[in-house]
Design brief:
Helix content is 24%, strand content 37%. The chain has five helices and ten strands. It has one domain (34-310).
Amino acid sequence: MTKTINFLFILTLLAFNSSGQGQSEKDQKNSAQVNLRWKIERGNLLAYKTIMEHVDISKSEMPNMGLFDKFLESDSKSFDKEYDEIVEFFKSFYAGTEKYSTITTLNKRDNENIDVKMLFGDFSNKESNSESDSLGEKSLLKSMMQGVQLRGIINKDGGIESFFMKRDQKNLLAVFFQLPEQPVRKGDHWQLEVNWLTMDHNFLSEKSQRINKVEMIDVIEKGGETIAILKYHIYERVEGDFKSPFGKTPIPTMMEMGLEGICEFSITHGKWKNYSGMLNMTSTGYQNASYTQKFALIELDEVPEKVYQYIEK
């Protein structure tokens, strides 16, 4: 009888230990830390087609400065006509640029840092046949638009080295390519070096809100790769009064801007597997405007030959 009880006790103990061990392995997998690191070999150029396109845009009004009130009241039709003429100019200016694209390259330096360049232009192998404005001002301006539009430096750990960049360019570098410099696990979150909104001394703030959060929501295995799933939530909002130096009455003003996205980073290969997000901006008061912009990175299997002229050897 005693031997039977001891035998049952041992079986129960073994079953309990096996169950506990299985649960522990699952917990360990969920809590395991991973390094999100760029893995770019020297001489191997990583290039992404970079999409920043408007998918919804409302007509933006001219800033309300107070100075133009009497002109707008007395001759609003004339102002609308001039505004429409400006819109038509830019439509004609950008006509023919549909073949242009934005490509961002990542190139490893000798010191292990990574050069990031955002290029804009026609990178197809076909030569331009445009003759309509070959000697005109529009052609000159278009040629000035092409080439390097952003130049930054990140380290292999994902941190931004080029602290000296202009705010708007640094924002783009951060949302597209900044990674956490420390190991992270599922559920961890970190901040990016992003500052969407800036107001000058004419703005008196009453309320402000800021959320700067990128969270690793999961780690999965897919197609032989270990992939981190990242959720982006970068949001800023300010409310207050804008006091124009030309007007007497303060203008109640609100501005908000935010990026939301779910992205996949390949831990195995050290690069984006999928990057997609939506940037939304709304402002009222001083200037009424609203737009939604799609942000995406698509890796290029083959780097266009014209891109290499912008890459230092």
